[in-house]
Amino acid sequence: MNTEKIPVKVEEKLFQNRYRVDAGRPHISIINQDTCRVECTTQECTVCCPAGCYTTEGNGQVVLITDGCLECGTCRIICSTYRNVDWEYPRGGYGILFKFG
Amino acid sequence: MDEKFDAIVIGAGPSGNAAAYTMAKAGLKVLQIERGEYPGSKNVQGAILYSKALEEIIPDFRDDAPLERHLIEQQMWVLDDESYIGTTFRSAEFNQQPYNRYTIIRAQFDKWFSKRVQAAGALLVCETTVSNLIMDGKRVIGVQTDREGGAVYADIVVLADGVNSLLAKKAGFHAELEPKDVALAVKEIHFLPEETIQSRFNIGEGEGVVIEMAGKITQGMMGTGFLYTNKDSLTIGVGCMLSDFKQQKITPYMLLEQMKAHPAIKPLLAGGEMKEYTAHLIPEGGYKAMPQLYGEGWMIVGDAGMFVNAVHREGSNLAMTTGRYAAETVIALKEKQLPMTAANLAIYQGRLEDSFVMKDMKKYKNMPEIFHNNNHFFTTYPELLNRAAHTMLTVDGVDKKTKEREIRKSFKQRRSLFGLMGDAYKMWRAFE
C-alpha cells in the first residue's frame, strides 16, 4: 500500500483531549527500572502505548510520563513477561475526561 | 460514609447503570460509585446501541435518550491496499419505528442513563475511585474508596468496573488478563455539518450508516476497522488483538492514520474536524477466558466479566443484560430474606446460562484461537478477493473464462488446495 509511513505526532491527537492531571502523583509507575533496561529486549510499551507515554532513552532506560494517558490498560497487560508495571486508576476525578467517549 | 447499603455498584457504564437502576427501582438502598467527573467521562465505545437490552430496562428510553442516528444501512468492506470489495445492506424496514439500532455518543448517553438511575432512587457518588474490596475472610462486605474515611458497607458488591477489572484481580477472584484476551481499539471523532454527512452517505435526517472493515488495514493483525455516522460527526477507529500488536510491534495511532489515508476512506472524512482521540481495551477472550462471575458477597457484570461477542460486535447489550440479571438476583434473594452467599448467588449463573448471553458465548468459544493462528484471513484473502474483482471488472480484451482460470490459479498458488479446504472447514467449525 502507501508503504511509506505517514508521519504522526500523537501529541497533536492528545491535544484535542481534556485532562485533569494529578500533578506529582502519577497513577502508573515502572516497578523496577533495571528490568526494562537490562532484561527486556522488546520493550513493547514504547511502541504499543496508544498515547505514547513510554519512550526509550539512549541507554535503554524506559521513561514513563503519564500526563497523556488514556487509561486503557495496554501497558499493564502487554508487559506480560515481566509484569513490571504498577497500574492504578487515577484518584477520583483526575486523569482523562472524555468529552465524547 | 459509615452507612450500610443493600448494594454497592462500582462503575456507571452500561452494566453498572443497568444493575443500579434495576435494584433502586425495586426499592433497594443502592450506592453507585464512579471514578470519573461524571458518568461517561471514563467510558469509550464505538458506539452502536442495540435497543432490545435497554428496552427491557427502560421501555420508554427513546423519549429522552440522546440518540444520534438510527441505522438504515450496514456495509462490510474487505480491503486491499488501494481498493475494497464490499457488501451493502439497506432496508426501508429499518426506517420503521421502533428503530432497532442507533449510533450514540457514550459521554452523553451514559450521563442520561445515570440521571434515570438517580431518579429511580440510587445514590451516585462521582470523582471517587474504589481502591480495594473490604473482606471478612472470603466474604466481600464493602469497599474502600480514595475519599477520607472512605469505607462503605453493603450486603452485596456488584463489580461493574470495566475491562481492566482491577478490583476482582486484587481480591484474587481472577488472574491477570493476557494480551490474547483483549483487543486494543483506537478511534477518533470527526465533526462535519449534518447535511454534509447526509449527502456523503446518501441518507436522510436522523438516518445512519455503519461500515465494518477487515483486511489489509489491520496490517496482518486480527481485527477490524469501523466507521459510524453520528448526527454531526463521524467515528472512525480500528481494533486488533493486543497479542498481535505486541508480536508485530505496531503503533496503534500509526495504524489508524494509515487506515484514514486509504483511498476509499479518506474522502469520507474530508473536511472534518477531529475533536477527540480515544483508546480502549475490549475483552475479546471469549468463553474460555471468562472469570468466575460470583462469590461470597460479590458479582461481576459487563466488560469486567468478559461479556463480549466479538464476532457480532456485541458488548454494551451484554453489559446491560448481565447488569439486570445480577440486580434481579439480588432482588429475589432480598425478597426471600436470604443472604448473599455464593450458593445463593448461583442463580445469576443460571440466568446467564439459560439466556442468549452464555449460549452465544459458548457458540463462539473457538473463534479467538482460529483467527489467532490464521492471519491470512486478514491479509491473503482480502488481497485475492480484491485482485479477483479487479481482474473481472477490467475490460481489456481477455475472455472471461481465461480470467476465471487466472483467479482460481491465484487462490491455489497463494493458499494451496488443502489450505483453502482447511480454511473453509475452520470457518464452518467456528460458526457452526
TrEMBL record, chain A:
Organism: Sulfuriferula multivorans
Ranges for domain 4Fe-4S ferredoxin-type: 26-59, 60-90
Keywords: Electron transport, Iron, Iron-sulfur, Metal-binding, Transport
GO molecular function annotations of the record: iron ion binding; iron-sulfur cluster binding
PANTHER family: FERREDOXIN-LIKE, FERREDOXIN-LIKE PROTEIN YDIT
UniProt key word Acetylation: no
Described function: Could be a 3Fe-4S cluster-containing protein.
Listed name of the protein: Ferredoxin-like protein
DNA damage listed as a keyword: no
Signal peptide: none
Taxonomy, superkingdom: Bacteria
PROSITE patterns: 4FE4S_FER_2
Record InterPro entries: 4Fe4S_Fe-S-bd, Fd_FixX
TrEMBL record, chain B:
Domain FAD-binding: 5-193
ETF-QO/FixC ubiquinone-binding domain boundaries: 208-281
A family per Pfam: ETF-QO_FixC_C
Cofactor: FAD
Domain FixC-like C-terminal: 367-431
Gene Ontology MF, one: oxidoreductase activity
Entry annotated with the keyword Flavoprotein: yes
Key word Hydrolase present: no
Alphabetical UniProt keywords: FAD, Flavoprotein, Oxidoreductase
Function of the molecule: Part of an electron transfer system.
Family from the record: Belongs to the ETF-QO/FixC family.
Entry protein name: Protein FixC
Organism in which the protein naturally occurs: Sulfuriferula multivorans
Lineage: Bacteria, Pseudomonadati, Pseudomonadota, Betaproteobacteria, Nitrosomonadales
